[in-house]
Amino acid sequence: MRTKFVQFERKLVTTDIFLMVLYVYQIDKQSEHFLAFGFTSSSSALYTAKNLVIIKNLKWLSRVPLAVKQAKQLISQLTESDFKESKTSGYRWSQQCSDYAGITQRWLVVESALRREADLRQLEKAVKKSAAEAKQKFKQLSSQKFACGPDAIDAAEQLSQKFKYHQLTQIEACEICPKKSDQQFYKVQADLEVDAGVIAGEIQKAGRFIRATNVLDNNELSPDKIIETYKQQQCAERGFSFLKDPLFFTDSVFIKSSERIESLALIMGLCLLVYTLAQRDLRSRLKQEEAFLKNQLGQPTNRPTLRWIFQCFQSVHLFTFESVQTISNFSDVCSQN
User: Fold this and answer.
1) Comparing 57-66, 182-191, 328-337, which segment has the lowest mean pLDDT?
2) What is the pLDDT of residue 112?
3) Residue 318 pLDDT class (50, 70, 90 cuts)
4) How crowded is the C-beta side of 50, counted as CA atoms within 13 Å?
């Protein structure tokens, strides 16, 4: 299969580059070449029915997006007793089977203690914000006049369905008969309450996410190894955000042949490798010397990003004139740090 025209976009993630190569080389016919990589670990960008069919001959590990109905239901249904403690501190897991997209796979529902705390804090803020909005909308509804009782009740029920964390109960249509007018009308009366069922469901699934793999043997890829790989992937994803940055000008590169797609993916990977090694060496030297540099906020740190170091040296220039070399602005950079 040949590609006529390909444009890399800023929103590329690691799996996008990987899948681009797979499309070009038709891995269903040449899978032996890619099986040498062992297995690939990716974000939820990989996990679609179409992609899973494409990489069916590979060993993969991916996050399952909660947009998948089966996944959304699963994390809400599992109880505390369904989980086992992981060897990795702060994590628990529950292993399930799935045949999503016709691919037999293992789903590992992971619960992170730190993420659960963060999700619960966000839930509390969301409920408070929702309560203020619900009160305002209910106040507006309560002031409306309706020609008949059923219209008033229907309006209240429709409004209640729009609330995410709240609901209207004890809905009634009260008949109002003004003394100065013979024309009667109806108004809504109801109680605004927190939807306890919805809140309980949100609390139960807080901190949970799903990792899927087509490696069915626990001895080959254990649940604890899946969690460990997930934590390692976070470091890699932060690195690949460097390649997706607009300053890398990836979106301005146009490629016509499959060979050049593969070459660009390799070059981008090598660039990230060099960048990561240089950054690690910089941080290691600072730690050994017990030295610090000022970060973007002017605070001392011994873990600066290499990108920040590049930015600090943007104004430094080397001039050569009549065999005499001069460095400009270097003293300014040193004084700032």
Assistant:
1) 328-337
2) 96
3) confident
4) 4
pTM above 0.90, yes or no: no
- pLDDT tens for residues 112-149? 999 999 999 999 999 999 999 999 999 999 999 998 99
The dihedral built from the CA positions of residue 25, 27, 30 and 31, taken in this order, carries a sign that is positive
Contacts of 94 (CB under 8 A, 6+ apart): 78, 82, 83, 84, 108, 109
